[in-house]
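The data are quoted verbatim for completeness:
=====
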Amino acid sequence: MTITAEGRLVGMTNTMITPLLADKVAFVTGAGRGIGAAAARLFAREGARVLLAARTETQLKAVTEEIRAAGGTADYVLCDLADPTSVQATVDRAVELYGRLDIAFNNGATSQQPGPMDQLSEADFDHVISVNLKGPWLAMNAEIAAIRATAGTGAIVNNSSVGSLMANPWLPAYGAAKRAVNSLTASAAATYGPEGIRVNAIAPGTTLTEMIDDWETKSPGIVEQLVAQTPLGRGADPAEIAEAAAWLLSDRASYVTGVVLQVDGGSRA
């Protein structure tokens, strides 16, 4: 590079920017739609080989084919997050396909019937806790073992919710499970940090997914109410949430662990 008499820079070449997740093997739960599907697409664009997991094969197949058509590397496997055998087999499949596991995004979740906690049946409460709390616990246990045995070091991100950070009268069981995920995240970060395994969480605010569409159907006007409480004045696109997860999973966040990152448009500012 030289500077001419006129002060112009000449001889400059374009600097190649390394993809955020280059050469990583990534595992994503709840990857058939919403934030999980957006994350799977993004991780593949950023250089990762991705294994998608969820319960609905048609959705998983569609996202996987989309990634492959764009030149990415992806495969999928059916997984029930409430079933320990299913979760373990799914993580094992990532290692079988790609030889190791580097990063994981535990995004899969289920919602609940909106309303006061005394109106939620015990069966529905148990289901929410089984998927949204026990599921990430099972997944982290399997992922940590796989990372330790293969890549040696790595990163995990759990998808929490801004609703875990405050009273949640609309979705009390959902909020309670997600708050417990925050605690598991912190405990895992402290436990496995010495091994070079980072564990963080993201707490999305109002995000325009099928899950919130279902909530709007059951509670008309809730999206407008939530957006009104958001300084940025809109809901998030799922891809915006995925970007936060990708950064936390990348080596560019190498000194970040044990945090719950709010990605909420300022709603908890």
In short: The first strand starts at residue 2 and ends at 3.
